[in-house]
Specification:
single chain, alpha+beta, 3-stranded mixed beta sheet, 42% helix, globular, binds iron/sulfur cluster
Length: 351
Amino acid sequence: MTARAATLLQWYDRNAREMPWRVSPADRLDGVRPDPYRVWLSEVMLQQTTVAAVTGYFQRFTTLWPDVMVLARADDAAVMGEWAGLGYYARARNLLKCARVVADDLGGCFPDTREGLMALPGVGPYTAAAIASIAFDRPETVVDGNVERVMARLHDIHTPLPKAKVELTNLAKALTPSNRPGDYAQAVMDLGATICTPRNPACGFCPWRPECEGCAKGTATDLPRREPKKPKPTRHGYVYIARRGDGAMLLERRPDNGLLGGMLGWPGSDWEEQPQPAPPVRADWKELPAQVLHTFTHFHLRLTVLVADVPAGAEPWAGEFLPRATFRPSDLPTVMRKAFDLARDQFENDR
Ligand code: SF4
């Protein structure tokens, strides 16, 4: 193990963040092994999402579905509903697919190598390396945004991202020890999340300060450099929120493929530059003065929301009425929940 890795592990032994899916360095020393199910679940949830946002979801999921065999038998709609708000909904669909492969084809045991893990649905190179390292102590190099930032600063790399990815990965690989690689992977992430933070690195508390080139040269806060991002286009759309006299709401489950795939939502138009109105049922639609603004990875969205109270016999040609007792706004993805929040104000004003 390099002196750098050893220094960082010593720091981690004193400063490791507590997370509900983690085994502390002290427990690990006592022989406690991480549960691969919990590591896998946390890593899938953490793709594109912060630890703070994930923690509550993780606790609910593991209470409802404490192991992979139970999750594999879960109802799709229940899992999608619990995932609502975490975003990137393809992850939830792949989560279920993966749980079913592990339960049905692998006897409930996750593969313990990066290659084996990569064969699972929804597990890409990063997630496979993270699970192999954290759950099975394989000497894999795990490179997330935190690790890229720390490596760029430690070695004073000025090549902008994403071009610098390979170089930063190789630098991270050269430091990965074969002893305690799981703790080491979590240690670099913790260093990036708590000390070597994007805006104000606390170099005075950093175990790597004596050898950090970015700190010595005063360039750390400017690193890593990034190619300027292309501006995102804006798309527009209409959503229609219909409420029946008995409180039932008109909803539709979105097709599995595509954005918000498999999630519940309000029926409406396509999202494009100039969408056509697409009411799902005959009604006296009232357009709300406020619009929903939401940003996806590749575009901004402006949704015009229309609401209507419809009679008992209304026959929609899109979506179906969900009884009030069954409809949980928390099952909606964030963009649809924003629309519901606007509509709820309107319905309450109409009372
Ligand atoms: S010394 Fe400062 S810039 Fe260098 S790795 Fe530590 S926190 Fe980051």
